[in-house]
């Protein structure tokens, strides 16, 4: 009987030691308890994710008409849209696609690092994500300047060379500037959110930061997915025909 009691006490002691195991965040000098890291916070996390999904669903109301307008225009003026698409800079578009996909990989790695307790590494990866987003906007700004210089701004002075249907080309570039401009605004918002979370990544309790980081990462991936759809229809479709 005494042996059984002693064994039970030893098991309880070991269990308590396991639960009290401490994790030291990378280079911060701050210590968190596993109980803190694993504390049930499912309701708030669920509410945050649900709120972001609802928000992203409303965002589709902005981009949905753009894709629909493109589909209708392409259906009725296929040659004009194909000719206009060949005037976009596919090299800059491809470069921006690589930059944005790299940013998605960076924020995904940041999420995993924060989840494993490597707050400082997560913070650095978030800075990389924001820097890549800023690089995308700089490249896009340069491309806009190049487009305007070539007479591709869809106003009364629209005068691109080698484009037989000016009206169809004007409609294409209206959709081009509207869609990519709307996307750039969303990306700029995403950069601000990433920088905000980056400030907290190595300085706050893991659960609140993880909840915010996962929500921001979801928004960032949404912005990237929108570009993945915009890139082929604006840059590649005309060259494939």
Question: How would you describe the overall organization of this protein?
Answer:
- It is a multi-pass membrane protein.
- Keywords: Membrane, Transmembrane, Transmembrane helix.
- GO terms for molecular function: cytochrome-c oxidase activity.
- This protein starts with a helix and ends with a helix.
- It is elongated, with a radius of gyration of 25 Å.
- It has helices spanning 2-19, 34-37, 42-76, 78-85, 90-115, 119-149, 166-200, 206-240; strands at 22-24, 31-33.
- A two-stranded antiparallel ribbon has the order 1-2.
- Strand 1 (22-24) and strand 2 (31-33) form a beta hairpin.
- The chain is mainly α and 241 residues long.
- The protein has one domain (41-240): Cytochrome c oxidase, subunit III, four-helix bundle (Four Helix Bundle (Hemerythrin (Met), subunit A), Up-down Bundle), CATH 1.20.120.80.
């Amino acid at each position: 009987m005494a042996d059984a009691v002693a064994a039970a006490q030893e098991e309880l002691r070991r269990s308590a030691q396991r639960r009290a195991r401490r994790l030291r965040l990378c280079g911060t000098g701050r210590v968190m308890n596993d109980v803190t890291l694993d504390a049930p916070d499912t309701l708030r996390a669920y509410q945050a994710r649900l709120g972001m999904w609802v928000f992203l669903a409303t965002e589709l109301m902005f981009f949905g008409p753009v894709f629909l307008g493109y589909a209708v225009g392409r259906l009725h003026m296929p040659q004009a849209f194909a000719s206009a698409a060949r005037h976009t800079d596919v090299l800059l578009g491809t470069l921006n696609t690589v930059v944005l996909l790299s940013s998605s990989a960076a924020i995904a790695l940041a999420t995993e690092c924060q989840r494993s307790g490597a707050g400082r590494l997560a913070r650095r990866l978030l800075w990389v994500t924001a820097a890549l987003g800023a690089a995308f906007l700089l490249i896009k700004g340069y491309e806009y300047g190049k487009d305007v210089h070539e007479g591709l701004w869809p106003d009364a002075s629209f005068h691109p060379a080698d484009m037989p249907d000016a009206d169809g080309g004007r409609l294409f570039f209206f959709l081009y500037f509207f869609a990519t401009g709307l996307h750039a605004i969303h990306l700029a918002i995403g950069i601000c959110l990433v920088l905000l979370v980056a400030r907290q990544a190595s300085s706050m309790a893991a659960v609140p930061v993880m909840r915010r980081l996962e929500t921001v990462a979801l928004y960032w991936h949404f912005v990237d997915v929108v570009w993945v759809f915009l890139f082929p229809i604006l840059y590649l479709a005309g060259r494939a025909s």
